[in-house]
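pasting for ref
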Amino acid sequence: MQQTILGMLALMIVGTFSLGQNRGAARTYNELVDDELEIAAAGVAMHVMELIGNRAFDERTE
């Protein structure tokens, strides 16, 4: 009986540790995706600003 309880306790501890590791990995992945999206958004914003800067201000501007 005691061995069964200790075995169940060991499984609970390993499961808790594994869950923590998986949550950490998922958090790291989400942060990586967020960083990539920020970089992509900055690139798009810079491209749009270049397009705007290349346009004429009015009809008389060359």
